[in-house]
Amino acid sequence: MTNAAATMDPAQHGLKAHSDGGWDSKVPVQTRSARPKSTDVADFPRVTGREAVWKFTPVAELDALLNGELDGSRVAASVSGPEGISSEWIARDDARIGRAGIPEERGAAAAWTAFREAHLLTVSAEEKVTAIVTRDTLDAAPRAGHTVIEAKPQSQGLVILENRGTAHLSENVEIVVGDGAQLTVVSVQQWDDDAVHLASHYATVGRDASLTHIVVSLGGGIVRLNPSIHLDHEGANGEALGAYFADAGQHLEHQVYLDHDAPHTRSRVTYKGALQGEGAHTVWIGDVLIRRSATGTDSYEQNRNLVLSEGTRADSIPNLEIETGDIEGAGHASATGRFDDEHIFYLQSRGISEEEARKLVVRGFLLEVIAQIGDAATEERLQAAIEAELAETDLVRAAAVKGA
């Protein structure tokens, strides 16, 4: 009997690559979960700006962080917090690094390749404790950072990362939430106007544990902060919240990923932004993946943008990938627009001026997210920062221009 494999014509149609060569490697990645991952920057090609992950980003202004030599020494930070939260520096080969996720793009890989030590924050208290990590003494030199935040099983904690001053920083932040733990991580960007900040946050959430991840981006010339939350244990809960306010010339970008990979997991994503001034640009991309293993999933994501003046641009792209039909629910929504005239009319009918009515709408729009932080002093300071942003814009005149 003749062996079929031995007689098969290797030139038969469909059994070899096309003559143009490399055709199979040129097919673009279609889903978030299929992206290649590596901690070595050499495994990623140079960024052109045509890639799906970079196409909305001003990559020409990021050359030093994407292709240059980064300072990998410790990123200076002060930590305030009670017992129940410890702070230490660990070597890059420590086994506690790399548990939450690894880079999917060149910017994060460049930072991972360059850093020498990681800043480890460990939450072990069973009653809620708060730690504030402040970074406000950096300079314009391109540098890499790495932070690991771990909540031990059954612990409760709030960790606030405060970013102020000038910086040229690319960093990775890992978040490990143990079984039954309740953790909130807040990243506040109030950089100076010349600051550039690239950040990738990776989180893994344990069985019956909960992570609330909050991003507040108000300052910085370019801020690109991308959180990835992996719900890879049964009963895990993940909430990703964000508030941002872009002024003239600012680029604020957030790419959010929720990966459901275990039964009975839950996620909620809510990002809200306001834009004012010529050249203000915001980007929000929300990816939710419900894997075949994630039966009983309950997920919803939304992004809302409030346009306050002409000359702004808000890109908003929600994506939902479902591999199983056995779920409780999943959905997404996106909206970008100006003030609701009925809301303004209602407030004016109660004796409030048009200018103040418009400011009240913006306050309520953004403070819905900020009020979830859980630290009164931080919430009050961010409310004051939003008030300062609003004081610089004549909202009545801006509305008149849009309506002309």
UniProtKB/TrEMBL annotation:
Transmembrane segments: none
GO annotation (BP), single: iron-sulfur cluster assembly
UniProt source species: Leucobacter soli
Stretches the record annotates as Disordered: 1-41
Residues in SUF system FeS cluster assembly SufBD core domain copies: 144-365
Name this polypeptide is given: SUF system FeS cluster assembly SufBD core domain-containing protein
PANTHER family: PROTEIN ABCI7, CHLOROPLASTIC
Family: Belongs to the iron-sulfur cluster assembly SufBD family.
Highest taxon in the source lineage: Bacteria
Pfam families assigned to the protein according to its UniProt record, in alphabetical order: SUFBD_core (PF01458)
